[in-house]
């Protein structure tokens, strides 16, 4: 079958409103819920939540391929980039990807080719890549994963001599208000951009930054979508490949839009659990604050900082000792006092296997 950009309908992307509507309603409700929940958090928790979600987005989107990123470096670079915006000196790759993420979330429209070139340079800061900061100058094909050992061509992207024109039509559409909601616009923008594949490399990552940009025009996404994409990359690739069809006088993007809305809803659901975890943590400390000594509070806060999966593992006397740097006797005394206060529950297993669970 000829590539989609050879279709007479290119680049007229459309979708079946009736089929998409229930998915849009459900993802919008979930986005509304998480946004409301986050807005209601105390200032410092809201900042902590945002920082964690942005760092997660950078790790998931920009870490999918290539040079691995260090989580703590990323967080530090995001904090610096949020504080200093444009004046922040870029010396490390983490600074560059944090700057790219901030730019995607703060660049006012309309988006220009030069801004995309700048994003591309940031993405490949310190890495050698052909045609960095410009449209690619060679033909490009997307082939089935090398893991399968095959070289099946999944998609042939438009040739270099038409990228300038294709991108200018795309950017013009992006700047216009079609009266569609941000999730639909973000889905179409991503699919369209990936279908052009204008860069030599990094099209997935710049395309996901574009999603951030689209949402930010009317209120930045308060959670990480790429984490959800990363969880089921196969479905993402499949949706891109199969989610655009020729028919009904348009390039029918219904399947991709539906996949996108579902991924968005699942990402929002996951983030809602994280925000609820923060609320439960706050309630825990409010309830027991008066009964905790400084050491107990520090240990428990350290555990909560590591998230729900760590909290669910509970804490043994040995770990308590390790975190607090105290003696075995003090650790046991602290833990028993926490149990007596009702902040911890002791497991059935005794002796060295004793674990204390948090009552939160
Ligand atoms: N069949 C397809 N049609 C169009 N785009 C596709 C298709 N399959 C995958 N893609 C997109 O192409 C991206 C890969 O392109 P490229 O290697 O240029 O991007 P990247 O950012 O370097 O990679 P990655 O997203 O894996 O980090 C995928 O992330 C996805 O967004």
Automatic annotation (TrEMBL):
* InterPro entries for the chain: DUF4172, Fido, Fido-like_dom_sf, Fido_containing
The EC number on file is: 2.7.7.-
Q: Where does ATP bind?
A: 201-208, 236-237
Please state every residue range assigned to the domain named Fido. Answer: 111-262
Q: What residues form the catalytic site here?
A: 197
- Annotated keywords: ATP-binding, Nucleotide-binding, Nucleotidyltransferase, Transferase
Q: Which Pfam families match?
A: DUF4172 (PF13776), Fic (PF02661)
State a single Gene Ontology molecular function: nucleotidyltransferase activity
Q: Which Gene3D superfamilies match?
A: Fido-like domain (1.10.3290.10)
Listed PROSITE patterns: FIDO (PS51459)
Q: Which SUPFAM superfamilies match?
A: Fic-like
Protein name per UniProt: Adenosine monophosphate-protein transferase SoFic
């Amino acid at each position: 079958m000829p590539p989609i950009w050879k279709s007479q309908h290119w680049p007229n992307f459309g979708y079946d409103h009736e089929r998409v509507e229930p998915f849009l309603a459900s993802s919008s409700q979930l986005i509304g819920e998480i946004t409301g929940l986050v807005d209601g958090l105390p200032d410092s928790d809201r900042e902590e939540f945002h920082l964690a979600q942005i760092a997660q987005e950078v790790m998931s989107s920009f870490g999918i391929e290539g040079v691995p990123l260090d989580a703590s470096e990323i967080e530090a670079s995001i904090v610096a980039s949020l504080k200093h915006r444009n004046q922040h000196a870029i010396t490390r790759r983490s600074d560059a990807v944090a700057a790219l993420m901030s730019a995607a979330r703060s660049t006012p429209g309309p988006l220009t080719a030069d801004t995309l070139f700048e994003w591309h340079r940031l993405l490949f800061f310190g890495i050698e890549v052909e045609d960095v900061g410009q449209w690619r100058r060679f033909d490009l094909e997307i082939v089935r994963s090398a893991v399968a050992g095959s070289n099946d061509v999944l998609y042939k992207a438009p040739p270099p001599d038409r990228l300038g024109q294709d991108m200018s039509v795309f950017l013009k559409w992006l700047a216009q208000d079609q009266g569609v909601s941000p999730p639909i616009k973000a889905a179409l923008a991503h699919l369209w951009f990936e279908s052009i594949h204008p860069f030599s490399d990094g099209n997935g990552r710049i395309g996901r930054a574009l999603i951030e940009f689209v949402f930010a025009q009317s209120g930045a996404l308060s959670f990480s979508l790429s984490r959800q994409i990363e969880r089921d990359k196969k479905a993402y690739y499949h949706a891109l490949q199969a989610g655009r069809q020729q028919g009904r006088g348009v390039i029918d993007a219904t399947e991709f839009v539906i996949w996108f809305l579902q991924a968005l809803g699942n990402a929002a659901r996951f983030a809602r659990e994280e925000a609820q975890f923060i609320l439960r943590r706050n309630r825990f400390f409010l309830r027991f604050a008066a009964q905790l000594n400084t050491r107990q509070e520090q240990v428990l806060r350290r555990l909560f900082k590591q998230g729900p999966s760590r909290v669910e593992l509970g804490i043994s006397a040995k770990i308590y000792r390790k975190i607090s740097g105290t003696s075995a006797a003090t650790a046991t005394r602290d833990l028993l006092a926490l149990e007596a206060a009702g902040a911890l529950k002791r497991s059935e297993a005794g002796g060295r296997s004793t674990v204390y669970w948090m009552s939160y």
